[in-house]
Task: inverse folding
């Protein structure tokens, strides 16, 4: 089957921004692409952004452990703060809504 999709949200520290100024954008993209590939994954897209985060990487990875390993490796440098978001396909949501679950709301 297909690998699960993840979104890596990154926020550069001042040190990281200085590195970005020095290296440039495409160099950073290639670094991330290599890192994803080294985990058996594939980068779908990489964008810098104006807003809460400085970059977003959309990627396919073999599993959650690979996503956690990537996030840890990037964050451990101290130059970037990352957050990984697991993504669901519309078909996966179809499967989700068909599951029955025994749950009662608080106070009911």
Result:
């Amino acid at each position: 089957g297909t690998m699960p999709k993840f979104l890596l949200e990154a926020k550069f520290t001042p040190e990281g921004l200085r590195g970005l100024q020095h290296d440039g954008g495409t160099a950073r993209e290639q670094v991330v692409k290599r890192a994803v590939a080294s985990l058996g994954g594939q980068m779908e897209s990489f964008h810098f952004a104006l807003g809460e985060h400085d970059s977003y990487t959309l990627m396919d990875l073999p599993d959650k452990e690979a996503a956690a390993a990537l996030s840890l490796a990037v964050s451990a440098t101290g130059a970037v703060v990352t957050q990984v978001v697991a993504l669901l396909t519309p078909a996966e949501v179809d499967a989700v809504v068909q599951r029955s679950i025994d749950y009662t709301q608080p106070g009911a």
About this structure: The two ends are 41 Å apart (CA to CA). The chain is about 40% helix and 25% strand. The beta strands are 5-12, 42-48, 55-60, 80-87. Helices lie at 14-23, 25-38, 64-76, 90-97.
